[in-house]
Design goal:
By secondary structure, the chain is α+β, with helices and mostly antiparallel strands. The protein is about 50% helix and about 20% strand. The protein is built from six helices and five strands. The longest helix has about 40 residues.
Length: about 180
């Protein structure tokens, strides 16, 4: 389904009033829900790398998305892992037909998801996670969808950057207060 640039801009605009420095979990959830709606997907999620560089689920639109993200975390396989390690979009068109996904495809089929699209979330020139969409039906995920999801991933990166900056400022302020005390 081609993504209309004006609809992309409108959807991103709905995220402008979020406050990641106050509630990052709620901010990520709102971004996931907005992406799910814009792309007419059945589920969506965000995975972020931990301190060891391992992907962990950070937010999911629903239990089905969380199950998919959890299993991709456990098996270190699937569209999320591929997008994170390659730095490029990863597409699963039909989990029932694509052998290359191995066992993770069984999880997709089990939760009645047939296709997925994952793009890296990058901050400071490095991948820090993925933004992921899932569909019940097989899906081709055209170039406008890939490009639009990459744009959305940039917004997620900005939100994460704002939260990290606020956290750093708070930590520095605490250290300054302790040093003065």
């Amino acid at each position: 389904m081609p993504i209309d640039p004006s609809m992309l801009a409108k959807s991103i605009g709905t995220l402008a009033d979020l406050h990641p420095e106050q509630d990052l979990a709620a901010t990520l959830h709102q971004a996931v829900i907005a992406a799910k709606q814009l792309f007419d997907a059945d589920a969506a999620g965000v995975m972020l790398a931990d301190l060891d560089g391992q992907l962990r689920w950070a937010s999911a639109s629903d239990q089905r998305a969380q199950t998919l993200e959890d299993n991709q975390e456990v098996f270190a396989a699937g569209p999320c892992a591929e997008a994170y390690t390659s730095g490029r979009a990863a597409v699963m068109h039909d989990a029932t037909l694509e052998q290359r996904w191995g066992e993770i495809a069984l999880t997709f089929v089990e939760v009645q998801i047939r296709s997925g699209l994952s793009v890296p979330v990058e901050l400071g020139g490095a991948a820090i996670g993925t933004l992921d969409l899932y569909a019940v039906e097989p899906r081709q995920w055209d170039d406008t969808e890939v490009s639009a999801l990459q744009t959305y991933a940039g917004v997620v990166a900005s939100l994460l950057g704002a939260a990290a900056k606020a956290e750093l400022k708070g930590t520095l302020a605490e250290q300054f207060q302790v040093g003065r005390g």
